[in-house]
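FAQ

Q: What does a record look like?
A: Structure on top, sequence underneath. For example:
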């Protein structure tokens, strides 16, 4: 791993892509209604959430995730295909962690697949961005 090969603008764009994917993924027409039901949340409760805290920490954690993925991809041979593959594999890893936590929290399989699926898709896209923007 050669840290000088990390493209920091690509890391930032990759992190921001998580917002775009999340906005679509957790929209009410797609998985938002099912996620709220399985999380025992109402629209009113979600709307009362501290948006600054939620989106601020989301940005921090997305940057950490993208930077970590970029560190693993900091090799001259990295391209969009390998980036997407590494992102997908990282997503499978995080899917497993989400599943374990959710099973102990007695969450439904639908909840696990909604949250785990988001992780797989967002990390795959992050990896593709990092791999493409070399």
């Amino acid at each position: 791993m050669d840290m000088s090969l990390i493209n920091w603008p690509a890391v930032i764009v990759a992190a921001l892509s998580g917002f775009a994917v999340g906005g679509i993924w957790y929209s009410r027409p797609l998985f938002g209604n099912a996620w709220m039901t399985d999380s025992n949340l109402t629209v009113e409760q979600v709307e009362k959430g501290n948006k600054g805290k939620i989106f601020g920490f989301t940005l921090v954690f997305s940057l950490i995730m993208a930077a970590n993925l970029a560190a693993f991809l900091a090799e001259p041979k990295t391209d969009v295909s390998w980036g997407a593959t590494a992102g997908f594999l990282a997503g499978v890893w995080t899917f497993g962690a989400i599943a374990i936590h959710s099973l102990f929290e007695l969450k439904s399989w639908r909840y696990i697949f909604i949250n785990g699926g988001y992780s797989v898709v967002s990390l795959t896209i992050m990896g593709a961005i990092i791999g493409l923007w070399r």
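Q: Is there anything notable about this one?
A: The helical segments are 8-25, 28-38, 43-48, 51-72, 80-104, 109-132.
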